[in-house]
Amino acid sequence: MSFRSLPKVELHMHHEGAAPPEFIRRLAQEKSVNLSGVFSEDGSYAYRDFVHFLSVYEAATQVLQTPEDYARLTRAILEQSAEHGVIYAETFLSPDFCGGGDVGAWREYLHAIREAADEGERDTGVVLRGIVTCIRHFGPDRAKPIALCAAETAGDWIVGFGMGGDENKGKQADFGYSFDMAREAGLRLTTHAGEWRGPREVRDAIEDLGVERIGHGVRVIEDLALVDVLAERGIVLEVCPGSNVRLGVYPHLSAHPIEKLRERGVKVTISTDDPPFFHTTMTREYDNLARVFGWNEDDFLDLNRVAANAAFCDEATRARILERL
Ligand code: ES4
Ligand code: ZN
């Protein structure tokens, strides 16, 4: 049995990271961009480990050069999401890649993305919202103009601010200025933490940045007292099991802590992160969780309600999503 048609809410996906390799290859051909090293012989993305993944990701992103390129990608993402039963998704958008951190250029990218998303919603029924994301390994000074882009475009479509990138570089607190600016603009906050580093990083995310959701966060399992804090405060984890297994955070899904976290009362949700990079889809994530942990349709309905309630959208949109689950 497959969970393909089950309605799903996805909170953690990177916009460029959702681009199928064929999409990137086509653009590279159109623009004569040389992408040697990005693909393996079988045509999939090629990388050795997480840090290499980030550099391949940035190389592939070079073919996305105009607002229209992002509009095309957005249409592809919504079609893909619809195929897997996703009814609401949030994607991470990096003004670093969309206009280089310049607010004027970012507005043009955002306008094109939003138009494509609205059109895609009419065609597919998938509701998309954006989270502006700074990139940790680019450093705190480059995060400031990104936070300004986020603050200037905060509203009913850009609903959050977050941080991705290499968790082994610097610390969460270095980005306090940018997260404060985003919060003051009314944005909701999330950050990648506890994927490559342990529970300390999760604690820093909560205490130093004040986030209400955490990207991954799974290694909090190494500190059960902190797990209980997450449960008490209702902090939501954007768990991406297939990504974690593919990148070697855990050797198999059976060793993944998602089940333990859920049993201990933590609000967990399920996402794909960068689906073609990690050879995953929302359907695959659900099918694998059902096989390994015995989760059924009722379990997934619970998880999708948690996700809908943790979505950064406005209340009217949330009500519409909850009705469709
Ligand atoms: C990421 Cl900056 C970035 N892009 C895509 N996937 C990621 N995972 C962690 N950081
Ligand atoms: Zn991620």
TrEMBL record:
Domain called Adenosine deaminase: residue spans: 7-325
SUPFAM superfamilies tied to this protein: Metallo-dependent hydrolases
CDD domains linked: ADA
Keyword Zinc: yes
Keyword Ribosomal protein: no
Domain of life: Bacteria
Coiled coil: none
Pfam families from the UniProt entry: A_deaminase
GO MF, one annotated term: metal ion binding
Keywords: Hydrolase, Metal-binding, Zinc
Stored Gene3D superfamilies: Metal-dependent hydrolases (3.20.20.140)
Co-factor(s): Zn(2+)
InterPro entries named in the record: A_deaminase_dom, Ado/ade_deaminase, Metal_Hydrolase
Cited NCBIfam families: aden_deam (TIGR01430), PRK09358.1-3 (NF006848)
Family to which this protein belongs: Belongs to the metallo-dependent hydrolases superfamily. Adenosine and AMP deaminases family.
Protein name: Adenosine deaminase
Organism: Primorskyibacter sedentarius
